[in-house]
Amino acid sequence: xxxxxxxxRNGNLLTSGEGWGPFPLILAGAVLAxxxxxxxxxxxxxxxxxxxxxxxxxLRFAGYGGLMAVRTPRTDMVLYGGFGVGLVAVGMFLQFGxxxxxxxxxxxxx
Length: 110
Fold this sequence. Notes:
Blueprint: H1 3-10, H2 23-39, H3 42-61, H4 73-107
């Protein structure tokens, strides 16, 4: 039984062991990254959102959970890390596509 599930069932979500954990930090970073995508620059916003997801994965690896602990730590690390690396790659290709595309094609033998 998960800590979050039992905290919700008992009605003491914010008074349970970890409470919020690093969730506000990750949420604030994600909101800033999305605002960067919308109003400033999509390339850097995608890179920042990927970096926030990588930080979330690293925090789950370090044992922090709080409201981020919905699944098992291993699943969270794989999902946060995978989506983080994917978004960082998208941001890099949007920013430096003319340089990275030939290098990746050469690496893949194309």
